[in-house]
Design brief:
Mean pLDDT: 85
Radius of gyration: 21 Å
Low-confidence stretches: 127-134
Order of helices and strands: EHEHEEEHEHEHHEEEEEHEEEEEH
Structural class: alpha/beta
CATH superfamily of the largest domain: Response regulator
């Protein structure tokens, strides 16, 4: 079996080391051919070296957004984009992207992305054998299947009735003992059959943020943010909550970045 050749484009050394280590933990047969930290160097590398099987590409590099690479040369390899922000999702899927990973990258998500690449590779091989479909055609077809769709409403029970609550009416989700409550902007509460962990894969991260183990909030439900002791943040929600809602010191920087998108 041929060794899989992978190129990493990442301008932060700790992030590139971590990604390389995670990839090789998942599959030690993968060969990292190079780690590149700029747009200019990436263009020169791709012009003068064999095309890798797969590229992991950070979006925000020291000399600009990596999307400009595609404006200057033709990139033949499929891409898994990596970034600390989710605002470039649709732009990523306009080029060679087969997946989009948010930092800090989790091992299980990276594993799923590599499996997605294998699925893409199998489809590409089969298409070449049967129909001669080129890479760009298959990428478009594959991307149509993997673009993330988030829930826009939730079906909840009200007595004997079932009603559908649109995302725009949701203030936050609150884990209370073993029950997760959907709380609306006008302070109505409905029990859900989802855990907060399950909701993470269903809510648009541009609009919703997991503050802690108890609260998953919509941006517009955040009334105020205060500095708190030990580097924590205290969050005032709308509708107001009985208990204090805080963000840990470890998560506060990420939360501030989310607020500043």
């Amino acid at each position: 079996m041929d060794t899989m050749q992978v190129l990493i484009i990442e301008d932060e050394a700790p992030a590139s080391r971590r990604l390389k280590n995670l990839i090789q933990e998942i599959d030690n047969q993968i060969n990292i051919v190079s780690i590149i930290d700029s747009i200019e160097e990436t263009i020169e590398y791709l012009k003068s070296n064999p095309t890798p099987a797969l590229i992991f590409m950070d979006i925000q590099l020291a000399d600009g957004l990596s999307f400009s690479i595609f404006e200057q040369i033709k990139v033949e390899a499929p891409i898994i984009f990596t970034t600390a922000y989710d605002e470039y999702t649709m732009q990523a899927f306009k080029v060679n992207s087969i997946d989009y990973l948010l930092k800090p990258i989790k091992k299980e998500e990276l594993t799923a992305s590599l499996q997605k690449y294998q699925s893409f590779k199998n489809q590409f091989s089969q298409s070449l054998d049967n129909q001669g479909i080129n890479l760009q055609t298959l990428l478009k077809s594959f991307q149509n299947k993997v673009v993330k769709e988030y829930k826009s409403r939730f079906l909840v029970k009200l007595g004997e009735r079932l009603i559908s609550v649109p995302e725009s009416d949701i203030a936050y989700f609150h884990a209370d003992s073993k029950i997760v409550l959907l709380v609306t902007r006008d302070h109505k509460k409905y029990a859900l059959d989802y855990s907060l962990d399950e909701l993470e894969n269903q809510l648009n991260p541009t609009n919703f943020y997991r503050l802690n183990r108890q609260y998953y909030v919509h941006f517009e439900s955040i009334q105020a943010v205060h500095n708190y002791f030990n580097g924590k943040l205290k969050i005032i929600l709308r509708p107001e909550t009985k208990e204090e809602v805080t963000v840990s010191r470890e998560k506060s920087s990420d939360f501030k970045q989310w607020l500043d998108k």
